[in-house]
C-alpha cells in the first residue's frame, strides 16, 4: 500500500488535516495573553509619545527659566583649524578631546600645548567614543568642549551702562540667525565703545563657537542679553531713558542728521526680512543709512558697524572741540 512501504525514505502519510495539537499547533504560546495594551503615549514609536516628551522638555525649560536660566548643553567644536581658531580667540573651553592614534601635526601640537598652558584638560579617548560624541567621523581626531555662554539680564545691562563714562549705546538684533553676523556685531559694539548686545531667545543666532571666533574674543568682555520678549525688553530701555532707533530703508531720519549722543538702542533686522512688525512699532524712530541708489541693502553686521562708527564719532566730537 502506498505510504506503507518498508523501503528506506518512504513516508507514512496521514489522513488527518490541520494541526496535530489542536488549534494553534506548535505556536500555542503565541495565543497567551500579553497584558493590557500600553497607552499610545507610552509607546516610543508612537507620535503621542513624541508629543509627551516634547511637553516634558518644555516644562523642564520653563522650570529652569524660573530658576534664572535655561539649561543648555555643552558645545563640541571639531576639526583642527576650528579648534586652533577658537583657542586663538580665547574662547573659554573646559576640555580638549584627542582621539587615540591621531596623526600629529603642527595644529594638533599647538592645540595640546595651548590647552596645557591655560589649564584646560587634555583627554585622550578612543576614536569610536569621539565619533559618538560628535555624531560623525569628520572631527579629524580632535574636539574642544565649550560651556554654554553666560548671558546677562536686561536689568544688569542697563545698570552697567548707567555707570559708564559715556551714554549707553546698545545694539538689539531682530531676525538675525547667522552666528557670524552676531559675532561681527559683538566685535563692532566693543570696538566703538558700545555697552552690550540684545538678542531674542527664539529664532535667533546664539553665542556659539562660530560667534565666539567671529567676535575675536570680544564676547568674553561684552555683555550679551537673551530677551524672552524683545518688545518688552525694548520698553525697559525706553523707561530707562533710551531712544529706540530702528534701521530700515526709507526712515524719517538718516544717519547724517540723527543725534546719537544720547542713550540709544540701535535695532538691526535681517537683510531679507528686516524688523518684525511689533519691534518696528516699538521703535521711537526709524533711521536709514545713505547709500548709492543702486545698492539695495547692507548686511546686518555692516549696517550696525556703520551706525556705531558714526555715533562714536559724534560722542568724541564735543571733547575734541575743547
UniProtKB/TrEMBL annotation:
Pfam families: SpoU_methylase, SpoU_sub_bind. Keywords: Methyltransferase, Transferase. Transmembrane segments: none annotated. InterPro entries: Alpha/beta_knot_MTases (IPR029028), Ribosomal_eL30-like_sf (IPR029064), rRNA_MeTrfase_TrmH (IPR004441), SpoU_MeTrfase (IPR001537), SpoU_subst-bd (IPR013123), tRNA_m1G_MTases_N (IPR029026). It comes from the Bacteria. Residues 1-68 are annotated as: Disordered. Residues 76-152 form the RNA 2-O ribose methyltransferase substrate binding domain. Belongs to the class IV-like SAM-binding methyltransferase superfamily. RNA methyltransferase TrmH family. This is 23S rRNA (Guanosine(2251)-2'-O)-methyltransferase RlmB. It comes from Corynebacterium zhongnanshanii. The lineage of its organism: Bacteria, Bacillati, Actinomycetota, Actinomycetes, Mycobacteriales.
